[in-house]
Specification:
Helix 1 packs across helix 2. Helix content is 40%, strand content 28%. The model has no long low-confidence stretch (mean pLDDT 78). It is globular. With 87 residues, it is α+β, with helices and mostly antiparallel strands. It has a domain of 60 residues. It has a three-stranded antiparallel beta sheet with strand order 1-2-3, with no helix packed on it. A hairpin with a 3-residue loop joins strand 1 and strand 2. It comes from Rhizophagus irregularis (strain DAOM 181602 / DAOM 197198 / MUCL 43194) (Arbuscular mycorrhizal fungus). This is Protein kinase domain-containing protein. InterPro entries: Kinase-like_dom_sf, Protein_kinase_ATP_BS. One of its GO terms (molecular function) is ATP binding.
Length: 87
């Protein structure tokens, strides 16, 4: 018997994949960045300042430790922001 949490995780993964395909979530490989500097950290993640190699655009990268509960919170935050932008 499948658990509801497994079904919810499948939906969240599908939502993220759709967001990447539909271009409302950008996906980058780590090898596309340079000049990493840790600018903050907490119990569940670290935040780095990095530069995109192909455009010299400086961005913040949030690296999440493998914690399913926290990942669900991030997915929900992204979904709320996307809904607010009409996605």
């Amino acid at each position: 018997m499948a658990s509801n949490s497994g079904i919810n995780e499948d939906k969240q993964i599908q939502w993220l994949e759709n967001g990447i395909v539909e271009n409302y979530i950008n996906y980058y490989d780590y090898n596309e960045f340079k000049d990493f500097q840790c600018i903050g950290s907490g119990g569940f993640s670290k935040v780095y300042r990095a530069t995109l190699k192909n455009s010299d655009t400086v961005i913040a990268l949030k690296c999440i430790k493998n914690n399913n509960l926290f990942i669900k919170e991030i997915v929900n935050e992204i979904a709320r922001n996307a809904i607010g932008r009409g996605k």
